[in-house]
Amino acid sequence: MKSFFVPDKLISRKKLTYTVTEAFDKYLRHFNRGILLSLDYDELLRYEDCFPLYDHNGNDTLWVTVSFQAQEHKELSYKLLQIYAFLRSNGQMDVLSHLRVDRIDLCLYGNTKPFRIRIINSINDNFDYFYIKQADASRVFGLELEHILSPNRIGFMFHQNTIIEEHIYGIPGDVFLENYLGKSDVNKVRLAKEFVKFNERCFLRLLGDMHSSNFVVDITMDFEENFYRLRAIDFDQQSYEPRKKIYLPQFFPQNRGYVQLAMDYLTPESIRQYQKEERSLIRQRIYSSSYRLSRLLEVFADTEIAPEDSVRQLAEELSEHYKESGFLNCRTMGQLVAQSLLMVETSPPHI
């Protein structure tokens, strides 16, 4: 893998928010993503007070826990449990009898200022999370593309200005580098392989800003060694930035530890092999979900989710990268994604 690119100030400006269009809303409802929610994002902004949330080591998490007046908390809790029932059990309300809303947290620094809802089982104290966020068209496209093109399924719902997302479990990528990478039971070859495949996957579907705080390491026990999968958890930068390198996790300095693994444990031949494997898997997913993906790309092609200048610059950089003039005819980020996916068939892997 090539040396690091330091994306200094390339994502320093605040991302613009784009409304979900009528055509996109129709698509989401057709594929059971759009529903009538009992609560929207703005209702949660009526909190009465908030206080910092610290982790087990006393470090500030940059989230705050919000509180509401007693009656309002009671009403919100019932609505939140209804939403959780739709997210986890297709609306079967009988699962709620032993559940309660334990905590509502707010992240003030995120683009969509998400609320994180903690649901706890009163019988055994087991807990789960889900998120309520301001709807942004690029983020919703990112969630749908992840569901179709990645090895992971994504649970989310949309209505008007609100997105409901399930929690994606795993060890945050930066935490894994700091606290787990040095342990003797970490299979560094497998982890390096997964980073190569993740890097390829992000680039082909143009998911940007995948530094180590924006993905998690999901570990599955195998009968001999652990299996690793890197999963994106932030989709705000789906096809938004103008620079090609923003869509390649290998160029973020925060991912230096993962890149070093690939350089230390993989040969160039192995890297090419794993890139080809990932492209082959994406090709299979494209074929198996061809109807759904073609419908999504039709809507995506006619939707504005980034400034025109960004589209133009990215088109030029991708055209130069692939030596393919078709990118220069693209006028939207959706068209660029569609053209990029065509490269799965015709181009060699990135290295």
Count of helical segments? 11
Molecular shape: globular
- What's the β-strand tally? 10
Q: What's the mean pLDDT score?
A: 91
The value of Rg in angstroms is 21 Å
* Alpha-beta content class: alpha+beta
Report strand %.
15-25%
How far do the termini sit from each other?
6 Å
Structure description:
The protein has 351 residues and is an alpha+beta fold. It has eleven helices and ten strands. Helix 6 (188-205) packs across helix 7, helix 6 packs across helix 8 (268-288) and helix 9 packs across helix 11 (333-346). The chain starts with 21 loop residues before the first helix and ends in a 5-residue tail after the last helix.
In short:
The chain has helices at 22-30, 41-44, 70-89, 137-149, 173-179, 188-205, 256-265, 268-288, 290-301, 308-322, 333-346; strands at residues 49-54, 60-67, 99-107, 115-121, 127-134, 156-159, 162-166, 171-172, 215-221, 226-232.
Features:
7-stranded antiparallel β-sheet, 3-stranded antiparallel β-sheet, 2 domains, alpha+beta, 351 residues, 10 strands
